[in-house]
Amino acid sequence: MTEETLEGWAPEIGRGITLEEVIDRAFDYRGNVTVVKTDGTELEGYLFNRERDAAEPFVQMFDRAGDGPYDIRYADIAGVRFTGRDTAAGTSYAAWLRAKESKKPASGA
Amino acid sequence: MSVPLSQMWAVASYVLKQRLRGTTRYPLVLMLEPLFRCNLACAGCGKIQYPAQILKKHLSVEQCMAAVDECGAPMVSIPGGEPLMYPEIGRLVTELVARKKYVYLCTNALLLKEKLEAGLFEPSKYLSFSVHMDGLREEHDEAVCRDGVFTEAVEGIREALRRGFRVTTNTTLFDGANPLRMREFFDAMMDLGVEGMMISPGYSYSKAPDQEHFLRRQRAHELFRSMLANPKRRWKFNQSPLFLQFLMGKQDFECTPWGNPTYNMFGWQRPCYLLQEGYARTFRELIETTKWENYGRRSGNDKCRDCMVHCGYEPTAVNHTFSSWRGFRDTVVATVTGRN
Hints:
Radius of gyration of chain A: 19 Å
Oligomer: heterodimer
Structural class of chain A: alpha+beta
Radius of gyration of chain B: 19 Å
Strand order of the largest sheet of chain B: 6-5-4-3-2-1-7-8-9
Strand content of chain B: 5-15%
Largest interface: A-B, 29 and 23 residues
Helix content of chain B: 40-55%
CATH architecture of chain A: Roll
Distance between the termini of chain A: 34 Å
Number of domains of chain B: 1
Shape of chain A: elongated
CATH topology of chain A: SH3 type barrels
Number of helices of chain A: 2
Strand order of the largest sheet of chain A: 4-3-2-1-5
Shape of chain B: globular
Order of helices and strands of chain A: HEEEEEH
Order of helices and strands of chain B: HEHHEHEHEHHEHEHHEEEHHHH
CATH class of chain A: Mainly Beta
Number of helices of chain B: 14
């Protein structure tokens, strides 16, 4: 299992990565992100959907309080920061097995 | 044969009605996820890795019932999360039973005894507790990453059976499963008195902690052939016999990703219960706008290549039963003789 995570990533759109690509990564990310809008406002929350093929592509989010969903058009997004904890990272099966093994009493001592 | 005749009839008449209407894409089982919160964190599960505000949220009963009505499937499976942690689970089940939906409440059973004692549920032919059991004590506790869960689940099953409820088990198998131990497990579940068992290979969720132990297709066929060869007459499986034949490599099916559509707080999940590639606002939108040709083994999609999970292939098996005399005959023969 890979332990790679995007937690803390704040990509600069246009520097080797497009807005669409960053939104795809945010959609796949299991933590909160902060969407920075073109008007300077920000919304932090869980980005659970993106419709790339819609006439006007948009994302959908629940904010940090769980309110929503809020729809934000791609055209209104300036950037995305991966600000929340990656809930899918760092809880590997191998770690659980190690912990289980360590709980067993030592034999042959 | 472990599925009650009334349920078989309800499903058969529904499928035939769809076929007579010329509906090509219709659902069989609605996977209704009212919440993602769970009291376990199993290594093979990719369903519960969400931020706190999402884990605290849940659907209302009204949202659930609107989805049930819109979808129209004759069976509703309630996975999650752990559905017994859903604060309105009693009312939800009551509403579903009132609509004559066959409900499979998928639970780890840790709260089952407590909820039964609280009088949340009434026995009904429409309600079955589908208890997650991944093997005998050692294997199950390892799969759910907590010691003692098997024993508690068995207590929950006993209590439900004592009170006259239908109880089935659902088992996910991973690489390394021991066929002989699984045969012992089947015996143990039948000894407990469950109505039937459901088995399926696990799916390699990209968000699941354990990525190393998912079964690849050929190994899955070998495992299921070893496990189900010379099946005992007393073993009852609460699933299509043709699906079991598929698991053993005796049937070559393609996935039916719309067969078990999933609804949760994000909407209608595209394309299936296992993959999360987006959400539609309505069931109709899901059916009409999902690019179905991109999914299933023949599509060449890597994510579908090794998948043999029941939510995609059991609907295919059921459709096969009603789409040809051969399919119908195969099903009848397997059901009557108990041979897979």
